[in-house]
Amino acid sequence: MDAQTAAPGWLERVRDSARRIVSRHLEFNFASVAPHVPRGARVLDLGAWNGRLGMLLRDRLGCAVTNCDVEDHDESDLPFVRFDGRSLPMSSGSFDVVTVLYVLHHAADDLAILREARRALRPGGRVVVAEDMVETLWQRVVTVGFHVLLLLFTGMGWSGRFRRLKAWHTRFAEAGLEVETMVELGPHMGLPGWPRNVVLVLRAAETARRL
Ligand SMILES: C[S@@+](CC[C@H](N)C(=O)[O-])C[C@H]1O[C@@H](n2cnc3c(N)ncnc32)[C@H](O)[C@@H]1O
Fold first, then answer.
1. Confidence of residue 4 (pLDDT cuts 50, 70, 90)
2. Which domains can be identified in the chain, with CATH numbers?
3. Residue 54 CA to its chain's centroid (Å)
4. Atom of ligand 1 nearest to the CA of 100
5. Closest-lying ligand 1 atom to the alpha carbon of residue 47
6. How crowded is residue 161: how many other Cβ atoms within 10 Å of its Cβ?
7. Which of 69, 162, 183, 194 would disulfide-bridge 134, Cβ 3.0–4.6 Å?
């Protein structure tokens, strides 16, 4: 890049921090889901955004990953499927794990996502959800404030709802899913002042009854 086209120093520094945040977010997401994804699993990443989590799951755990989203920002070399927000274009029982990370509160119809995730699971499979926490008034202020900034800086709005854990349990039950494991992750990427996160590992309710 010559002197005329080079970005000013401050802009380069902003871009550098943005790149560092994206890569730290990716590692945080990998560490959040890896304990719940068996080696070699068939994984659907629903709401995959740039698709890079799928590449880590493939490269580090040997998973066969399909990325899926309502918008195509995919930067991966994995199969990508467009979701219309209502029904997934794949047959039932195709996946061992469906990951849904920080997606449900963005979706106009989170129930459709949960029902479709359940349908896409093979018997005994798991849906791994990550969400921002709003258990207390302060957590709600932090989570909503963060999403206002996200909207201003990236244009990514949210059409769904932030729910308390009890309300999520009820929502999952409406989709025929129940919580098997819940892991509180603390603030996103370990950074003070960021929304606190939780991972919820779900299984089909009939599976639970048979165990
Ligand atoms: C905050 S981003 C999270 C992306 C990624 N899962 C992550 O954790 O880095 C929310 C993602 O949800 C997607 N999304 C929004 N509504 C959706 C819907 N109804 N079904 C599937 N994905 C949706 C957006 O396009 C975006 O990629």
1. low
2. 9-210 (3.40.50.150)
3. 11
4. 6
5. 22
6. 13
7. 162
Rounded Cα distance between 34 and 198, Å, is 14
pLDDT per residue as tens digits for the range 161-207? 999 999 999 999 999 999 999 999 999 999 999 999 999 999 999 75
Are the CB atoms for 50 and 74 separated by under 8 Å? yes
Å from CA of 112 to ligand 1 middle: 14
Which residue has the least CA distance to atom 24 on ligand 1? 47
Q: How far apart are CA 22 and CA 20, in angstroms?
A: 6
Q: What are the Cα distances from residue 35, in Å, to 30, 57, 182, 185? A: 9, 11, 12, 13
Kind plus residue range of the DSSP H or E element containing 81: strand 80-82
CA distance 157 to 106: 7
Give the per-residue pLDDT at 12: 87
